[in-house]
Specification:
Elements lengths: L1 H6 L4 H35 L13 H9 L2 H38 L5 H28 L5 H25 L5 H21 L7 H19 L3 H9 L1
Helix pairs in contact: 4-5, 6-7, 6-8, 7-8
């Protein structure tokens, strides 16, 4: 989703501006996000009787909104949360549908028309929405203490691997597509077992995934270089 936003810019210079702007704004946005949790902790630390004794960690913020905020303000906050959630989910669904259409559907059906691709993308978006609903329902029935912990595990499992792929492509020209694919698969599998074993803190999952992905990709690329690289070396 984020990469596609950068690709819509008019030039490489504008794309760089967007990346730098996003990198700068992520810092205050993250601080505000975590400060909300800190403020809630301080409030209920001083008002323990107001906390729901049977609630989970994820219930603290909704409980505060419903019990402590005035009726009108609570409605505005809930509307804002729904609006932010809907905009994020819709853009993610459309981005994934676009990737599937352009990278897979057009590859297997190169003669397809724009209308056929558009229809396929719409059905793909609907299917992704259904899958997302099923995953959300599944997460509810897991009865986890905090979905945030599960989110970090998933991001570490796949997001760190994707970050490793980008770093490999940017800083290591010797790494080829075979190496990147192998690095992604190996880092994802290795991180799954790391999570199961609990040998490191889950905050370190993304860092471990990036390191494993780049290292594996570099080694595989050395063992199995691309034919184009071999031809260039022969010419040199």
């Amino acid at each position: 989703m984020v990469v596609q936003r950068y690709l819509t810019t008019s030039s490489e210079k504008e794309a760089k501006k967007s990346i730098y702007t996003n990198a700068v704004l992520v810092i205050p946005a993250s601080l505000i996000f975590f400060m909300v949790g800190t403020a809630l902790w301080v409030y209920f630390r001083h008002n323990p009787a107001s906390l729901n004794p049977n609630g989970r960690v994820d219930d603290v913020f909704p409980w505060y909104i419903s019990q402590q905020l005035p009726t009108g303000l609570a409605g505005l906050v809930i509307a804002g949360l729904f609006a932010a959630t809907m905009s994020t989910i819709s853009s993610s669904m459309n981005s994934i549908a676009t990737v599937i259409t352009t990278d897979f559907y057009k590859h297997f059906k190169p003669a397809s028309t724009d209308k056929q691709q558009f229809v396929f993308a719409r059905y793909t978006t609907v299917a992704l929405g259904a899958v997302g609903c099923l995953i959300a329902i599944y997460m509810v029935f897991l009865n986890n203490t905090s979905i945030w912990d599960q989110y970090l595990k998933i991001i570490g499992l796949f997001g760190g691997c994707l970050a490793g792929m980008f770093l490999a492509g940017i800083f290591f020209p010797r790494i080829n597509s075979k190496g990147v694919l192998a690095g992604f698969v190996v880092s994802a599998i290795a991180l799954y077992f790391i999570q199961r074993a609990g040998v490191i803190n889950f905050f370190l999952y993304p860092a471990a995934a990036v390191l494993l992905c780049v290292t594996t990709a570099y080694i595989v690329s050395l063992i199995s270089p691309d034919k184009k690289q071999m031809v260039l070396k022969a010419v040199d």
